[in-house]
Amino acid sequence: MTITQKDIRALFAKLRSFTDQLQATLEERQRLTETLKLTPSLDDNMDLINLLAKIKKSLQYLHLDISTGHADQFATQFATIVDSYTEQLAVLSKDAYVDAHEYEYTEKITKPEAPELTTKKLVRFKDYNTDDDNMRSQLMGTQGQIKPYRDDPEEADSQSLNSVDTSNREMFAQHQQQLLQQDENLDALHESIRVQHSMGRNINDELDDHLILLNDLERGVDDSGSRLGRASLRLKDFRTR
Fold first, then answer.
1. Burial 33-57 (b: 16+ CB within 10 A, else e)
2. What distances in angstroms separate CA 139 from CA 131, 135, 148, 181, one per listed residue?
3. Where are the alpha helices (DSSP H) in 141-154?
4. Cα angle vertex 217, ends 213, 220, to 5°?
5. 45 versus 130: which is more confidently predicted?
6. Exposure winner among 107, 144, 193, 200, fewest CB in 10 A?
7. For residue 145, what is the DSSP state?
8. Which pairs from 16-22 meet CB under 8 Å and 24+ separation?
């Protein structure tokens, strides 16, 4: 699968969404700790850590995709978003609950230099008669074994190796995108499980409240039964007198 400019722009849009979410989270966290003098909860810390991990992983995948042949178009844009993320991490450098250094990303993409134009030496040979050449090859048993002349004999091998290397990079990039998609699915599943866990705890609390009410009702019924029993005995004694 070939990585297109459209795919890279989509990854940039997703990464900007993550960084915007990180900026909002940092502002809320700063207000919580500095203004209200409160301590972030464990869930808040885990959400922040998961967001930082997703941003770092997205930067790694985007770096790999851009390096497969799109450095000229996106190197500057990638450097800008890396600088913005670095500034956001600087805000977390003094955070006592999150180790910001673990999620640093400093790699940037350099634009490839323009290749030098070299003039190849042209070699002219004496024109041969094609029929005579084919007949000579058949008589000598060398037909199909003669390779065309090249100024650079390693050029063909180099082109073959480059095509194989490009194919491997594309396969690796596709695999990384699949892993990123799986991570997003796992994040969605984690969020769903967390919501269900919260609902389960609420249901458990309600059941505890109902259990207390049922125990009170049971004690009330027992007290009422005892009173009715005593009243029945008194009524029986009254009748026998």
1. eeeeeeebeeebeebbeebbebbbb
2. 12, 6, 20, 63
3. none
4. 140
5. 45
6. 144
7. T
8. 16/81, 18/51, 18/54, 18/55, 18/58, 19/55, 19/81, 19/84, 19/85, 19/88, 21/51, 22/51, 22/52, 22/55, 22/85, 22/88
Q: Which amino acid is it at 111?
A: K
What CA–CA distance (Å, rounded) separates 216 from 39?
39
Contacts of 145 (CB under 8 A, 6+ apart): none
CA distance 2 to 152: 30
Q: pTM of the prediction? A: 0.47
pLDDT digits (tens, 9 = 90+) for 214-232: 988 988 898 898 889 889 8
- The whole-number pLDDT of residue 138 equals 53
Q: Please write the tens of the pLDDT for every residue from 68-88.
A: 888 788 889 999 999 999 999
Q: Report which of 62, 53, 67, 49 is spatially closest to residue 14, judged by C-alpha positions.
A: 62
Query: How big is the chain, counted in residues?
Result: 241
- What per-residue string of b and e applies to 11-25 under the rule 16 or more CB within 10 Å gives b? bbeebeebbeebeeb
Token readout for 173 is 């990039």
Helices (H), 92-154: 130-140
- CA nearest to 109, candidates 133, 81, 140, 76: 76
User: How many whole angstroms separate alpha carbon 78 and alpha carbon 109?
Assistant: 7
